[in-house]
Design brief:
Blueprint lengths: L22 H38 L5 H31 L5 H32 L21 H8 L12 H14 L3 H14 L6 H14 L3 H14 L6 H14 L3 H14 L4 H12 L2
Helix pairs in contact: 1-3, 2-3, 5-6, 6-7, 7-8, 8-9, 9-10, 9-11, 10-11
Length: 297
């Protein structure tokens, strides 16, 4: 049974340098847009799940495999967790609406109300699926409104976490270098989920390491390579905010711009790329930024 991976929610504000006061409204609007994209992805996933239910109905007479039910239960649990995160993010944004003008607030309230209704409908469908399969209702893990996006997990990452560690615990005096090298090797070999886990462990154990910024950058790159652009944007932003003097700053801005462009947000893409030209005018990344800006006109 194929297990689907669902995107986590972009709930962090992006500090888009160079903006003036309207930046706050743009940031909140971007978050709503990101949630709308997330809802569409969940609806598509729900459609696929409905097709699988029809297949199961046909197989019931023949005898369904227990592992198929287990996989379905796991997928439904993940969907419910994503729904819970959306609800928490909605509550947070509703709380922040008071900071905006009446006109802006009314427009956002309408969009948030539509999202809230869609989330409720999705949850009801999931409950019906559980009832049909005869499964005990799964409990979605509560995600606090302040939860960092990096703490959200995909199905693949959760499974990777349950597998035996792919790395050997460093025993030498150079364990810092060995841990980083192990994570980078996983990344280069395409084991993105385990590589992310190892890079996160590296940053946690050695936050002051000269390679801490590189580790965060490779985490962002892994999401970008998987076309998980929303998550990549947030991880690149961590490089910029936590390591402002990093040699990966220019590359992070460039890939942020690329990611926004891939999501169809040309205005934000141009904003980021122009900021790159301002802060890193002589970098190789600046050349690529100029070329990309031509296509975003």
């Amino acid at each position: 049974m194929k297990i689907y991976r669902f995107f986590c929610i972009v709930i962090g504000f992006l500090a888009l340098y160079g903006c003036v006061e309207p930046q706050k409204f743009v940031a909140l609007e971007n978050r709503v847009a990101a949630m709308e994209m997330e809802r569409k992805k969940q609806l598509n996933a729900q459609t696929e799940k409905d097709k699988e239910i029809e297949t199961i109905q046909e197989k019931v007479k023949e005898g369904i495999r227990p592992e198929d039910y287990a996989d379905m239960k796991y997928d439904i649990k993940v969907l419910k967790e994503n729904n819970q995160r959306l609800e928490n993010a909605l509550e947070e944004m509703n709380h922040n609406l008071g900071n905006y003008s009446k006109k802006d607030r009314e427009e956002l309230e309408k969009r948030l109300e539509r999202l809230d209704n869609a989330i409720s409908q999705n949850y009801e469908k999931l409950v019906e699926l559980e009832k049909y399969l005869g499964l005990e209702p799964s409990r979605a893990v509560d995600a606090s409104p302040g939860e960092k996006p990096s703490e959200n997990r995909t199905v693949d990452e959760n499974k990777a976490e349950n597998r035996p560690p792919a790395s050997v615990e460093p025993k030498s005096e150079n364990e810092e270098q060995e841990l980083y090298a192990t994570a980078k090797k996983m990344f280069d070999e395409g084991d993105k989920a385990n590589a992310r886990n190892q890079f996160e462990e590296f940053i946690k154990k050695y936050p002051k390491s000269d390679n801490a910024d590189n580790a965060r950058f490779w985490i962002a790159e892994s999401f970008y390579s998987e076309k998980w652009f929303e998550k990549a944007i947030l991880e690149y932003q961590k490089v910029l905010e936590n390591y402002p003097k990093s040699n990966k700053a220019a590359a992070s801005r460039l890939k942020q711009g690329y990611s926004f462009a891939e999501l169809g947000e040309k205005a934000n893409a141009r904003l980021i790329l122009n900021e790159l030209l301002k802060k890193h005018p002589d970098s190789n990344e600046a050349k690529f930024a100029k070329e990309k800006l031509k296509s975003l006109q």
